Amino acid sequence: MQNNYKNQDFQSKLFQSLTKYGSKPFGFDKMLTEDVPLKKREIEYASSLPLQIILYFNVYYSIVWAIGTCFLWPLLVTRATDDNLVWIILILFAFSLTVILEIIRLYMGYVGNLSERV
Q1: In terms of DSSP H, where are the helices of the chain?
Q2: Using the 8-state DSSP alphabet, how is residue 48 labeled?
Q3: 5 pLDDT exceeds 60?
Q4: What mean pLDDT comes out for the span 77-95?
Q5: Conformation bin of residue 27: beta by default, left when phi > 0, alpha when psi is -120 to 50
Q6: pLDDT at 83
Q7: What distance in Å separates the CA atoms of residue 45 and residue 56, rounded to the nearest whole number?
Q8: What percentage of the chain reaches a pLDDT higher than 90?
Q9: Residue 112 exposed, middle or buried by CB count within 10 Å (0-12, 13-18, 19+)
Q10: pLDDT tens, 12-62?
Q11: Mind giving me the DSSP string for 74-86?
């Protein structure tokens, strides 16, 4: 019986500390201490957490993709013939344009989502 009491005490202390420290970065600590009715505490955000997570991982994926593609360029160029030279130049132009547009897309996604303009 006493072991169950210690377990409940530990769980309640753990929950209180997680609530205390977990709410500070988001500004919820002030809302939890005020005596305001629950309906007035609700805050609506237009930003999307799943979109932010996808953008975060897409930044790293894009970097790995660009580096991997750059490492394959010497292989492509060394095996090229004169007939393929025009295609290699077009592919290089398309790759450069894709990298530039990807940077702009990810930046605008970050700024738009965090400033709640999505």
Answers
A1: 2-23, 29-33, 38-41, 49-78, 85-114
A2: -
A3: no
A4: 85
A5: left
A6: 79
A7: 19
A8: 29
A9: middle
A10: 776 676 666 655 555 555 555 555 555 555 566 677 888 889 999 999 999
A11: HHHHHT--TTTHH
Cα–Cα distance, 8 to 117 (Å, whole number): 44
Distances (CA, A) of 82 to 70, 76, 79, 87, 92: 21, 13, 10, 10, 16
Confidence (pLDDT) at 116: 76
- Which two three-digit tokens encode residue 21? 């420290």
Two tokens at 76?
């492509």
DSSP code at position 34: S
Are residues 56 and 113 in contact, defined by beta-carbon separation less than 8 angstroms?
no
Q: Rounded to whole angstroms, how far apart are CA atoms 34 and 54?
A: 34
Q: Which residue's structure tokens are 């398309």?
A: 94
Amino acid residing at 68: G
Mean pLDDT of the chain: 77
Give long-range contacts, CB 8 A cutoff, 24+ apart: 66-74.
Answer: 66/99, 66/102, 69/95
106 and 55 Cβ atoms separated by less than 8 Å: yes
Q: Which two tokens stand for residue 71?
A: 């490492």
